[in-house]
Design a protein that fits this description.
With 495 residues, the chain is an alpha/beta fold. Helices cover 29% and strands 26% of the residues. It contains 13 helices and 28 strands. The strands form eight sheets. Strands 1, 2, 3, 4, 5, 6, 19, 20 and 23 form a nine-stranded mixed sheet that branches. Strands 8-17-9-10-13 form a five-stranded parallel sheet. Helix 5 crosses helix 10, helix 6 packs antiparallel against helix 7 and helix 7 crosses helix 8. It is globular, with a radius of gyration of 24 Å. The protein starts with a strand and ends in a 5-residue tail after the last strand.
Length: 495
Amino acid sequence: MSTNHFDVLIIGAGISGIGAAAHLTQKHPGKSFAILEARAAIGGTWDLFSYPGIRSDSDLHTFCYEFKPWLEDRVIADASAILNYIHETASEYGVGEHIRFGHAARAARFSTQDARWTVDAQCGDEQLQFTANWLFCAGGYYRYDRGYTPEFPGVERFPGPLIHPQHWPEELDYDDKRVVVIGSGATAMTIIPAMAKRAAHVTMLQRTPSYVVSVPAVDPIAERLKRWLGPERAHRIARRKNIFLSRAIYKGSRRYPNQLRKLIRAGNVRSLPEGYDVDTHFNPPYNPWDQRLCLVPDGDFFRAIRAGSATVVTDQIETFTETGIELQSGAALEADIIITATGLDLLPLGGLAFSVDETPIDLHETVTYKGMMLSGVPNFVYAIGYTNASWTLKVDLVCEHFCRLLTLMDRRGYASGVPDAPPPGSPARPILDFGAGYVKRAIDRFPQQGATAPWELNMDYVRDRKVLLDGPIGDHMGFASRQASAPLAAAAVTA
């Protein structure tokens, strides 16, 4: 079995992995790295999903990398535009030559004596090993080989196509077909207006409503600034504006949930036909931002409803039938095609089996450190973005702090660094403190977070900038020198 060694081994060639690699080429051009990508292409989510209308639910001024401005007009962009952007980044920073496609990482073992990771990977029928000083997990937290579909009673009776958006068939013909989309999240809000252009009719069947907010697909302020200041300066201002607005909306929703609920409802009333039953179909039982808001560019979802090509039904499924779905209310939905936009399965850290000095690591027993490392796990970094803002905002900060940590360790001759655990008896809570069903189903397999810094997972970009860009490096960590072969000794470094 051949072994390849690198300074940094990155798992995943999606937006996080390509970003991490680009940061390394800028801050540590002398370090060797490789990216293991299980699939045959870069882009992660933006290459995997191909359902109609797929797009970002964050504005691209904040979803893009800080080091590479988003210069397109549409800031709620479709997958192809985002994928082109990721490819451009990989090309500009020479990342592509470092990617090993078709390499699925299965297990990772750290040796304290050697101060290195050994990673087992599968490439077709071949078993490969890679070693690295550092392991960077950039695969997000979704399971990419399957989505989540509940067990529906009578599903075997329905003769038509039953499709999860994660496995969209290229050959699907839905022209003039009756389509039912089960679900009310961002995926459903995307699919419905896209399919409604060609289908006979599209019905969104939801058990619980979501908060739906119409936003401009093209930022009018950014467009004016482009004419006055040029595209790059305009982008920087628009980025700061959107970060400020998203933080203000989130904080306002926490402090004044009823007021924000009223504002969203008023927007829905303006966007929907007169007399529409907003309080049945767009009035969630939870507060805004207990779950992520659904953004619809230029109100396309509402336009489909106004045009009569889409309908919202709030009810529960009694059973599937030969002609569609029978509801608990006694009503029936006729369908030629049923789409189960019922969410995703979560998979912590790509499903890797971790061990340190031959002792398996139970991820749920670890605690996050600065939202990027894990207590008791040496030389390991992961990237999980924000749930209340653009994913890439956090990834950029994690990569910046990681590069600062590498610089410090190189300067002081350290080979290994491991975060401390919180003091004994400290309270812990889920790392994703989020009410979505897909989170609740899997949270007991994820690491936890503490109640105080640096073990608390911040969901505040401005606060994270102070911690990760300007704060101390190596605080509450233990380090070992290149000559040490004993277990890591505590030696907090704050320089």
